[in-house]
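Quick entry between incubations.
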Amino acid sequence: MTKRGSREEAEVTSTPALTRRSMLSAILGAASAGIAGAASGETQPSALDGPSVPPDPTRVPGTGPSAFGERSSFARLSRRAAFGVISGTPLQDLHGTITPADLHFERHHAGIPTIDPANHALMIHGLVDRPLRFEIADLLRFPAVTRTCFIECSGNLRTDAGPETTPQELCGLTSQSEWTGVALSTLLREAGLSPSARWLLAEGSDAAIMARSIPIEKALDDAFVAYAQNGEPLRPGQGYPIRLVLPGFEGNTHVKWLRRIEVADRPFMTREETSKYTEPLRGGRARAFSFTMDARSIITTPTYPAQLERGWHEIRGLAWSGRGRIVRVEVSVDGGARWQEARLIGPALPTAHTRFGLPWKWTGSGAELSSRAIDETGYVQPTRRALIDVRGPGALPYHLNPITSWLVESDGRVLYKSEGWS
Amino acid sequence: MFAAVTSFGCGPRSSITYEPPTTALQEIGRFELGTPATPAEIEAWDIDIMPDGTGLPRGEGSVTKGARIYAEQCARCHGGRGEGRPFDPLAGRIEADAFPFAEDPKLEKTVGNYWPYATTLFDYTRRAMPLDRPGSLSNDEVYAVTAFVLFLNDLVPEGTTLDAETLPGIEMPARDRFVDDDRRGGPEIR
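Done. Structure below.
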């Protein structure tokens, strides 16, 4: 890069010529490196892969209009894949409460199917007066409902995580979108429920034909068949063209690629509600149909791998409850000896991620940062110890929502407080 | 319900009429969208099987035949005798059919020690297995491989052949272990 004047002392990070071709290749390069990094769980591509940066953006015409917006190549956000079946949301890199659709967590049981919406239909049958098939075009003609809510996988805690663990790696299987679709009660009214209807089976058209039994009370309350996420059609990984949304219920029940609803007088006892998604309890029992996600919170900043500077920061995080609104979040900086009420930032919607914040001045001594959520039922997010005592150390791996802590070392490193699960 | 049809007032007089929009969704009742699902369409997708056997297809399969299918289709993910690795273990009982999962985090859940219904094994195998070729097994083959996995768990003898009549009658050790969710919110942790 040739310098053109004294104002151009700022370092350039990459190649000199600002041409459409170089911009394009730089962006594509960054994108493909990002995908590779996400797939392998490796770290992000370095800044050297980014586009050319003029020393003074006011002296160079910018790029023109385009069909799609792109993230700044400096905003390096990616999901993190693990175990071949999950992609976690980078909670530590996001703000507010809406998860960008391409960063919404994914868990699928036999991959993401490719579905032509013209050949997809939702069938409702069983204990109904009129078995019906709805094309996507039919669904779009019904009155729409829109609701912002979280979806969280019920197995959303890595119990074996070590100190160098990010929120994404620890519990990145929770995300939030504004979903739009048709109330399930509306569709069931079209079909006409039999008086003996008590449960329904929701089934997807993925290669696992994933299916869950849903109680009729939920179906008639706030369940809906979503076709849009954050204003656009669902992403394939989120169930394109349609998915079930059951606000507050565990993620597995929000059946993606929904194609069939069968109404019955009892639950169906699929593999996903017997062998999986049940929790052993003390006394030789296991809890089944444990749908609702209890209240939880997680600090998102500062967390690993942050390096703190002395002075003011804001401890920020997310809190949510499957049972309604978050009414309070408390934060401790001394390992739970004293708790202080945090500020709720923005709306506290029912069954929704709610952002909290608490300004904090770090003086350079060690600290232990924790948060606990309180929901409108009076439920207080429990400690790890309380959960283990009540349920047993083998009550794994679902519905674990313990208070989570981050250790600030005197050198400014922030580490996950790894406590295991026993 | 707004039944009134109003004449369209502007422009040249014509036969154009309109139905006024309504916000009273309750009054609408049905929207009369969608098309009737035919019995053939329902049958093509209606694959679920209830614990009492509702939904089980015709056909049958023996432990012996299931052993051959298992070796070809299942063993490389679930181990030669259902011991698991790289994917879920399928076989294994606990002494006296105890259920100490909450106390022992190392215990592995198997068909024999955790699954409450044998019908679920048929349903899931036909639905989703084998992972790389789901839906490729015939109903007879699913009966057979179900029989073999139950045999690996000492739940049926080696000479067994299963069909829609006999499969639901197999009582699984964990059948009565499952309880409804008693969490209700509020201050108590459950």
